[in-house]
Amino acid sequence: MPNRRDFLSTLGLALGATTLGRPRALAAMTTGAPLHLQRIGIQLYTMRSLTEKDLEGTLAKLAGIGYAEVEFAGYFGKTPEQIRAMLVANRLSSPSSHIPLPANDDAWKRALADARIIGHEWAVIPWLDPSQRKDWAPFADRLNHLAELARAAGMRFAYHNHDFEFAREGDGTVLDLLLTKTDPSLVDFEMDLYWVTKAGADPLDLIARYPKRFPLMHAKDASAGERGIVDVGKGTIDFAKIFQQERTSGMTHVYVENDIPGDAVQSATFSYQTLANLKY
């Protein structure tokens, strides 16, 4: 099974999917009443064994499970117009998409232009090849620059973490450096709760220290012991406690993800039901 690096390397800068409106993922805060997720999303990397063969059919399955939002990571040769039509047909929205780090500004502008046509709100850099994991201060400057281009195109920009960003850098971690040296008005972050946990860090600590920087989150659970990836609800991450920080974190979209699902449909169904039933 291909890993994320292999998968993303095949994408180039193809764009797709649209945000059909801007719904919040969370219920409004009401005094004394438990909250619940209003719109649950899924990162389609979870479903890659199916989307490679039948993207439209997979979107229909996810809508049938109850998902309202999807986050793309590739479009399998489909045009932005075709992707938008599939989303409309299934009453899905796609607030964000994973787009590989561009080779240059021209490539990035082309990617953003495609994204703008079909309505994405966020362009998310999801992964760095090991050869790119260096010179972090200049990289933070580059993120600011890419975000400026995204804003000029009418979009927002975000960076998605794994565990390597928790390596020590100066007085903190690489992620601390990226968060402090990027412009909060330009650069958002997509917190992957599994990778934060895998690295031995605390999502609540990050939310407290960097409020309003994580509008996007990946709900991915971690097993006890070796902290392997499991379906949401089968692991140790306290999602209710994390989601209680909504006012501070500014979280607007939550995506289920499992990098290594056994049966992708069963995995997506179980995780959806867990989050749909979650009260906090």
Task: Explain this structure.
- By secondary structure, the chain is of the alpha/beta class.
- 38% of the residues lie in helices and 14% in strands.
- It is built from twelve helices and twelve strands.
- The protein has helices at 4-9, 48-51, 55-65, 80-89, 105-118, 136-152, 174-181, 193-198, 203-209, 239-243, 246-249, 264-276, and strands spanning 41-43, 69-71, 96-98, 122-125, 156-160, 168-169, 172-173, 187-192, 216-219, 221-222, 229-230, 253-256.
- An eight-stranded parallel beta sheet has the order 2-1-12-9-8-5-4-3. Strands 6-7 form a two-stranded antiparallel sheet. Strands 10-11 form a two-stranded antiparallel ribbon.
- Helix 6 links the parallel strand 4 (122-125) and strand 5 (156-160).
- Mean pLDDT is 89; it is low at 5-24.
> How many E strands?
12
Structural class category: alpha/beta
Task: Tell me the β content.
Answer: 5-15%
Q: Number of helix segments?
A: 12
What is the CATH-assigned architecture of the domain at 4-24 and 35-191 and 262-276? Alpha-Beta Barrel
Average pLDDT level = 89
Tell me the major beta sheet: 8 strands, parallel
Series of secondary-structure elements, N-terminal to C-terminal: HEHHEHEHEHEEEHEHHEEEHHEH
CATH topology of the domain at 4-24 and 35-191 and 262-276: TIM Barrel
Could you say which overall geometry the principal axes of the C-alpha atoms support? globular
The CA-CA distance between the termini, in Å, is 36 Å
Task: Write down the CATH class of the domain at 4-24 and 35-191 and 262-276.
Answer: Alpha Beta
Helix content: 25-40%
Q: CATH superfamily name of the domain at 4-24 and 35-191 and 262-276?
A: Divalent-metal-dependent TIM barrel enzymes
Strand arrangement across the biggest beta sheet = 2-1-12-9-8-5-4-3
Low-confidence stretches: 5-24
Rg of Cα set: 17 Å
